[in-house]
Amino acid sequence: MTNRRSFLIGSATILASTAMPSLGFAGGHGRVGEFTGKSNHVTKGRAEVVTKNGKSQVILLDDFWFDGAPDPKVALGRNGYDKDTLMGLLKANAGQQTFDVPAGVDAATYNEVWIWCEKFNVPLGVAKLN
């Protein structure tokens, strides 16, 4: 009985490991951070920074939620917002969104994802990356 159980467990492990497709940028492969609001704004959820084949992206995950403000943009930071990493306007105030990190920016050297109001030059939320 022990040999049969070992065989079944081993077979199930092999099947599970080979049946899973490659997910690419689908999440779960990069550095993740939890948002906290700034400037009296509520910003919640997680952001992930992933790099594959030399291309980096910031993914606001399904649990992302923001209370709204004019001109909210996504950027990276290194212990503070870096305007040279702006990736564009927030696409929605809630849910998963993906942004391409600008060419020439090494996402690995940054430790934060920012939601930034460019119009008023104030932070709206920041996620410290692990």
From TrEMBL:
<dbReference type="InterPro" id="IPR006311">
    <property type="entry name" value="TAT_signal"/>
</dbReference>
<dbReference type="InterPro" id="IPR019545">
    <property type="entry name" value="DM13_domain"/>
</dbReference>
<protein>
    <recommendedName>
        <fullName>DM13 domain-containing protein</fullName>
    </recommendedName>
</protein>
<feature type="domain" description="DM13">
    <location>
        <begin position="33"/>
        <end position="130"/>
    </location>
</feature>
<dbReference type="Pfam" id="PF10517">
    <property type="entry name" value="DM13"/>
</dbReference>
